C-alpha cells in the first residue's frame, strides 16, 4: 500500500512541477501561452511545421517584420504570421495590424473574422522571440493520431502500476 502511495505522490509532484514551470513562463513572458507549436508551413522558410516558438508580450510598439502569434475571433487555434503593415491611430492610440505568412501569396484578411480587415492588440498573444526546431512534432503527432496518445497513456499507466 505504501508503495502505491509513493508512486501517486511522485506522479503528483511531477504534475505540480510542470504546472509551476508553466505558470513561471507565463509570468516571465507576459503571455497566457508562452510556448506554441507551428502547425503549418505558412511561415517557411523562417519556421517549419513542428518548430516550437517562445513568445513574449511586450509593451514596445509592433512594427512591420515582427512575427506575431494571434487569435482570430471564431477560431480556436492561434496563427503565427509576420506583420506586413501597421497603422497607428493618433486620436485613440489604437493600432491596426495586417499580417501575412511568409510563404502565402496574399495577406491574412481571408483568415480574419468576417468583415474584419485588421488585427488589434487584444488579438495578439505574443511576439516570437526564439524557437526550437522540430521539437513540437510530438504535439503534432499526438494531436493528429489520437490512438498514439491513448497507447502512450495506457503504457504510462501500466508502467506506474508495475
TrEMBL record:
It comes from Stylosanthes scabra. Catalytic component of the signal peptidase complex (SPC) which catalyzes the cleavage of N-terminal signal sequences from nascent proteins as they are translocated into the lumen of the endoplasmic reticulum. Specifically cleaves N-terminal signal peptides that contain a hydrophobic alpha-helix (h-region) shorter than 18-20 amino acids. Pfam families: Peptidase_S24. InterPro entries: LexA/Signal_pep-like_sf (IPR036286), Peptidase_S24_S26A/B/C (IPR015927), Peptidase_S26 (IPR019533), Peptidase_S26B (IPR001733). GO terms for molecular function: signal peptidase activity. Residues 21-87 form the Peptidase S24/S26A/S26B/S26C domain. Its EC number is 3.4.21.89. It is a single-pass type II membrane protein. Its main location: endoplasmic reticulum. Belongs to the peptidase S26B family. It catalyses: Cleavage of hydrophobic, N-terminal signal or leader sequences from secreted and periplasmic proteins. This is Signal peptidase complex catalytic subunit SEC11. Keywords: Hydrolase, Membrane, Protease, Signal, Transmembrane, Transmembrane helix. SUPFAM superfamilies: LexA/Signal peptidase. It is found in: Endoplasmic reticulum membrane. Residues 1-18 form the signal peptide. It is an enzyme of class 3 (hydrolase).
Amino acid at each position: 500500500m505504501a508503495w502505491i502511495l509513493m508512486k501517486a505522490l511522485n506522479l503528483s509532484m511531477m504534475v505540480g512541477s510542470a504546472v509551476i514551470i508553466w505558470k513561471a513562463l507565463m509570468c516571465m513572458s507576459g503571455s497566457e501561452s508562452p510556448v506554441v507549436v507551428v502547425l503549418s508551413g505558412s511561415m517557411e522558410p523562417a519556421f517549419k511545421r513542428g518548430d516550437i516558438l517562445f513568445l513574449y508580450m511586450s509593451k514596445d510598439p509592433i512594427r512591420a517584420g515582427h512575427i506575431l502569434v494571434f487569435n482570430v475571433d471564431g477560431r480556436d487555434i492561434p496563427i503565427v504570421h509576420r506583420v506586413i503593415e501597421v497603422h497607428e491611430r493618433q486620436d485613440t492610440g489604437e493600432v491596426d495590424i495586417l499580417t501575412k505568412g511568409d510563404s502565402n501569396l496574399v495577406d491574412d484578411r481571408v483568415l480574419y473574422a468576417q468583415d474584419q480587415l485588421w488585427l488589434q492588440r487584444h488579438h495578439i498573444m505574443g511576439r516570437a522571440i526564439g524557437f526550437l526546431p522540430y521539437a513540437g512534432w510530438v504535439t503534432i503527432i499526438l494531436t493528429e493520431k489520437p490512438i498514439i496518445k491513448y497507447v502512450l497513456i495506457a503504457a504510462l499507466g501500466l508502467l506506474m502500476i508495475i
